[in-house]
Design a protein that fits this description.
10% strand, alpha+beta, SH3 type barrels, extended, 3 domains, 272 residues, Serine Threonine Protein Phosphatase 5, Tetratricopeptide repeat
Length: 272
Amino acid sequence: MTRTVIVALVLLFAFPGVALGQTPRELALRAGELVRSATEIRGDDPDRSDALLREAVGLYTRIEQASDSRSAALERTLGGASLMLGETGRAVLHLRRAQRLDPTDAGTNETLEHARRQVRSGVAPSAGSRLREVALWWRGHVPRSALLYGSLLAWGGAWTLAVVRRLRRWERGGIGVGVLIAGALIGGGTLASERALDRASREAVLVEDGVMARNGPSADVYPPTFTEPLRAGVELVVLERREGWARVRLANEQETWLPEGAIEMVTPGSAP
């Protein structure tokens, strides 16, 4: 399946006609029409297609601002449009945000992996950079709602069984109570740890292409860290900010400095 087909499917079905209120809904319908038109003429008139996609991105951004909240559907749509426009950095950023909001969506995960393959940064991930992925391995397989309701049911079942045992003076059933309590704690703890990790996250994405990383917070004083500039879409962790620069750690655990304006946080407002 080609990149255009993959992204087009994501764009066409990512943003369902939910009850957003009249004005945002009208914007969504208009943006959807623009995306469809852009997809249809992509092969014959790529410049016009890009113009339509940029207009659609502007409308989807207005929807996001009007609703005063982020949604997986909007982020997924923005990521798909950015990928079609060749803006790999912003594609990775929006798709990472969509994945964080809805980790089980297959379309988001597939398109994100496709976008990551376009980066080809040469920065190999290490064992240390995968710790968060290991801690949150379940997010791509188990819906949050299943964990939440499962934990509540297990907690309620444990109390119900404990009360019945006490009233009927059963000697058996203690193991069942323990198992239900453990299940409730595991499910609740898993959700709590995810929330804590997301709030503390300093993960970011390089959204500008051809940025030269430096050994310090100055292009005039410090030499480049690498012989080649970094490509948009490189994923990193922000360690500190200083005078318009950010000290970051790349996926291979190497630290370097990048212009602060060239990166954006995966979780907005989570910068150190």
